[in-house]
Structure formats: structure tokens, C-alpha cells
Amino acid sequence: MTQGVKRVKKIVIYVLLGLSVLILIPFAVLGLRILLDLSNPLRQPVERIREDILAITPLGTSMEDAIENLEAVSNDRDWGRLSINTGIGVVYDQLGLPSRPEDRALNRRTIVGEHSLIMNLGGYTNIFGTGVVAWWAFDENMELIEVYVKKQMTGW
Fold first, then answer.
1. In this structure, are 63 and 85 located in the same domain?
2. Count of beta carbons in the 10 Å neighbourhood of residue 123
3. Per-residue pLDDT in tens (0 to 9) along the chain, 156 residues
4. How many domains does the chain have?
5. Are 37 and 81 in contact (CB under 8 A)?
6. Within a 10 A sphere around the Cβ of 148, how many other Cβ atoms?
7. With DSSP H G I counted as helix, E B as strand and the rest as coil, what are the percentages for the chain, rounded to 5?
8. Cα–Cα–Cα angle for 75, 51, 116, nearest 5°?
9. In Å, how far are 40, 85, 88, 107 from 133, measured between CA atoms?
10. What residues make up the domain containing 24?
11. Are residues 12 and 46 in the same domain?
């Protein structure tokens, strides 16, 4: 074998190795991201997330205490900003639920409670992104009467 042929073989091997690395790196990064994302607690079923929230803000909690408790844990959990809505409860439309039949008969939307809190809890990615949002409904005495959690596809 001549020196020129050996040199061409070496170049071909280096090019193939370089291409292999360029092809494998994105898959390795994607795999790492998937492994890290699998540990995200927001991947749990909605019912389990709701139970976790109720451990922080049990039914009957005052709105003031709920706000304090949620603000205390939101930074640790990387949750979004808490939206406080006095004078409006949780509207079924926001949850993607149809109004109750008795409300539809009167041509009105179903609203639970007199006051509410809303917080974006974050999300995770499979092929598509999924966002997780929670709503807290309070009665006229500003005591917690219900918690709702919804997952929604957010795109790529």
C-alpha cells in the first residue's frame, strides 16, 4: 500500500469519527434531558398533584394563609407567579369543563366560589410541551373549598 492510500484511509476514518460524534451528541443531550425530565413531579397524574397541593393548602384554609403557604413553597418548586382574584371564583371555562346543566339552563357559566387563586406550576416535555396550572376556589368567607389542577399541551 502506498503512502497516499494510507493517508486517504486515515482521513476517511477521521471524517467518519467526526460525523459519528456530531450525530451522537444531539441524541446524548436529548437522552439526558429526558432522564432529567422523568423526575419532574409534574409528570404525576393530576389527582396526585392535587393531593400534593392539598397537603400545602388543605380545604378550609383561609385565603391569606393559602397565599402565604404557596409563596413559601413556590420558589423551591420553581412555580410561577400567584394570581389573586378577589370577587371571582374558579370559572369552569378556564378548566376546560362545560358549565353544569342547571347553569346552562339559565344561560350562565358555572363558577365555583367567590374568590380564587391561579398559579402556573410549570411543565415538562415529551414530544410536545405540557403545562400544569392550579386553581384554588374560596367561599364568601375566604376559606378554601376546592382545588383544581389541569394539564394542557403547550406545543413543541
1. yes
2. 19
3. 677 777 877 777 777 777 776 776 776 666 666 666 567 889 999 999 999 999 999 999 999 999 999 999 988 888 999 999 998 899 888 887 778 888 888 888 888 899 999 999 999 887 788 999 999 999 999 999 999 999 998 865
4. 2
5. no
6. 20
7. 45, 30, 25
8. 65
9. 15, 15, 17, 27
10. 1-39
11. no
